[in-house]
Design goal:
This protein is an all-alpha fold. It has one domain (about 1-140). About 80% of the residues lie in helices and about 0% in strands. The chain has five helices and no strands. The protein has helices at about 1-25, 35-60, 75-85, 95-115, 120-140. α1 crosses α4 (about 95-115). The model has no long low-confidence stretch (mean pLDDT about 85).
Length: about 140
């Protein structure tokens, strides 16, 4: 049951990250090339399966890995690789990095709100907003 919850959460955050990346790219004047909705949903399903399985393995299968959460960097790398291969000609490296950054931000804000840490969620939103404004100003000047 935990595995399905992790998979669903990873799918929801990945879809939200794709929407946010599309909005961000349209704001800076870059066209984000996405495949059809069905193909993107399938791609997000496979990528979120990797993320959900990675989180489940770290928390429930490997006994000491719960203290060493940096190991979750590996499923994120696999997800980045999946999206880079699926959008090989259309996306640059920065698009994959921005996708993973948006997903991390969505995860963090959702987890903070779920845990009742509203101040942390607002701080994270402000921090990510400031960084995105900085990136957008550089991108528009290029």
């Amino acid at each position: 049951m935990h595995f399905l919850l992790f998979w669903a959460a990873a799918f929801a955050t990945l879809c939200a990250a794709l929407v946010l990346l599309n909005i961000f790219d349209s704001v800076i004047g870059n066209d984000l090339v996405l495949q059809s909705a069905g193909k993107e949903a399938l791609l997000a399903g496979v990528a979120s399966l990797v993320e959900g399985a990675g989180l489940w393995v770290v928390l429930f299968v490997i006994p000491r890995a719960g203290r060493e959460m940096y190991i979750l960097f590996l499923p994120a790398l696999v997800v980045g690789l999946i999206y880079k291969v699926a959008h090989f000609e259309d996306w640059g490296k920065i698009d994959v990095v921005m996708l993973l950054t948006f997903q991390f931000a969505v995860w963090f804000v959702a987890a903070s709100l779920y845990a009742g840490h509203f101040k942390s969620a607002v701080i994270m939103l402000g921090f990510i907003g400031a960084i995105l404004a900085l990136v957008a100003s550089f991108a528009k000047s290029l």
